[in-house]
Fold this sequence. Notes:
twelve-stranded mixed sheet; 14 strands
Amino acid sequence: MRIKYAGLAITILMTCFLPSRSQEQSKGNPLQHLSLMGFRLGKNTIADVQAKLGNGSVGRCPDEEGGNNDVCYVSVGPDRTAVVFESSDFEGSTPFVDGFKVIAGSRSLNCKLQCLTSKAFGSNVATDGGLKLGLGRTEVLNLLGAPVRESGNSLSFEWQSRIRMTRQDTQKTGETSHPYWNVAETIDVALTNSKVVEFEIGRAVSD
């Protein structure tokens, strides 16, 4: 199976082109949560992030599978909210952002990244769909629907769908019998005292 893009531990998948999309799982709509601070998964690149938020160094997060390229920013306020943007490391591929996570300052990054201080966001940073730190469990379920997995204080949401390939895609992949991209989308949310303290969103597409 060829992976076009791979996301974070929480993986939200979609492509830059949305026509012919069919949602197969979950009542929530993940598409509105694929954008954060004007950056869209699968559309913007790590360079776009650096141009807007500052030229933070790109590093690896060794304790996550895949060894992806990450860039990290932390808010200047006392909340010290961290936002990590990720791009999968595929040789010769365009470094599109295919995942991001938002982490409350009270939690560890679980990665030894150097985070660049930014005034562009605070603890209220949210996806276009309204997912943000501090939401209650019920509010999360209202946004995303029922989780496919729940373990302790962690909620996982997943979606599966297909998107028809463009003519250019079929020429590149040589795929003619099944001209669709398989799309898998997931969102993972961590709660403390029934409040969101971390969420992670990613994207991946395979043929």
